[in-house]
Automatic annotation (TrEMBL):
Transmembrane segments: none annotated. InterPro entries: Metallo-B-lactamas, RibonucZ/Hydroxyglut_hydro, Sec-metab_biosynth-thioest, WH-like_DNA-bd_sf. This is MBL fold metallo-hydrolase. It comes from the Bacteria. Pfam families: Lactamase_B. Residues 43-256 form the Metallo-beta-lactamase domain.
Length: 354
């Protein structure tokens, strides 16, 4: 069992993982935690890779004043500045990873690379693809969460867009490719699930995995929370976990939480966790057809086993959509059926006859 996020000390700093500063995780690589304006996640780790040509940053943080100032201060601790940044390798499109990279990249002339799978998300966020309503609301309606859809429909900012820094990247990562960073070679590996275009970056020679939100040491990543939704985000996520598990075991450099010694150990925990959740979802269908929102109401949430009714609207929305992802995988496995209805998709257990 992993250490709770609230008490997680990172071995590179000897302090809580979100403590400000610049901490060396390997020769020429520093972790700089940037603050986040939310209750659950206190910070996002940005990794700074030094080369003779300048700096490459893995992820960029959220384009808020506090994040920008923390990054500037962290770079100053290692004798660097924004002017030294040459490139951002962004793991995925969520604003706490992409938005400050997009803003700073445009400001200092640093290239920003992002997975090609994120283009449908950016198309929607930039209005290139017309939508009758905010895509997250449609997902909530399919989950049977009509009241949550109503709440989020009253708050246009809740879909995660940041108009100050929202743009297309300078280059797209397509497939699994090698990326040269000075004398280093990073293997950019497509790992859909958390979002459809998520990437991790493995430096096998140094034994490191820049994991973004794909593998987190103290929490389980949300699944499929993105504008351009896919039917089977959990299937994609578990397949991506298996893909990373097939690599040599590496040191985990996560976007949220402390660095950890074994990617394999955490991947095994995450796979086991989702199998347990799938079993709970199937058991919740034993009394008949239900929506994802109904099933979510029966499940415990977070490592503390909180009741669904105690969650705030944002986390209730995440829980409803994540439950739907589990139910959709049960359908794909032949253990459940689905029926589209106006009040939400109804899921039912498939009864095996002797």
């Amino acid at each position: 069992m992993s250490t709770p996020t609230a008490y997680a000390v990172s071995p590179d700093s000897g302090e809580h993982w979100s403590a400000p500063g610049a901490f060396e995780v390997a020769a020429g690589i520093h972790r700089i935690p940037l603050p986040l304006p939310m209750d659950g996640l206190k910070a996002v780790n940005v990794y700074v890779i030094e080369t003779e040509q300048g700096l490459t940053l893995v992820d960029g943080g959220w384009a808020i004043t506090e994040g920008r100032e923390a990054l500037e201060k962290g770079l100053r601790q290692i004798g660097r500045s924004f002017a030294d940044i040459r490139r951002f390798l962004v793991t995925h499109v969520h604003r706490d990873h992409f938005s400050l990279a997009a803003a700073l990249g445009a400001e200092v002339g640093a290239g920003v690379a992002l997975g090609l799978g994120e283009k449908p998300n950016l198309d929607m966020m930039l209005g290139a693809v017309p939508a009758d309503e905010m895509p997250m609301i449609a997902q909530l309606r399919e989950s049977g969460a009509a009241e949550l859809a109503r709440i989020f429909g009253q708050d246009p900012s809740s879909d995660g867009r940041d108009e100050r820094s929202l743009r297309y990247p300078d280059s797209w990562l397509d497939g699994d490719v090698e990326v040269g960073v000075g004398e280093r070679t990073l293997h950019a590996i497509h790992t859909p699930g958390h979002t459809r275009g998520h990437y991790v970056f493995a430096e096998r020679q140094a034994g490191l995995l820049f994991a973004g939100d794909h593998v987190l040491p103290t929490i389980t990543p949300s699944i499929g929370f993105e504008p351009a939704a896919v039917r089977q985000p959990l299937r994609d996520f578990m397949a991506s976990l298996a893909k990373v598990r097939a690599l040599p075991d590496l040191t985990l450099l996560p976007a949220h939480g402390p660095i950890a010694p074994s990617v394999h150990a955490r991947v095994d925990e995450l796979l086991a966790h989702h199998e347990e959740r799938l079993a709970l979802c199937l058991a919740a269908l034993s009394g008949g057809a239900r929506t994802a929102y109904d099933v979510a109401g029966d499940l415990p949430w977070t490592r503390h086993g909180h009741a669904f009714a105690t969650l705030d609207p944002f986390n209730s929305a995440l829980a409803s959509m994540e439950t739907k992802a589990h139910l959709e995988l049960l359908v794909a496995r032949g253990q459940a059926s689905r029926t589209d209805r106006a009040d939400g998709v109804q899921f039912a257990a498939v009864v095996e006859h002797a």
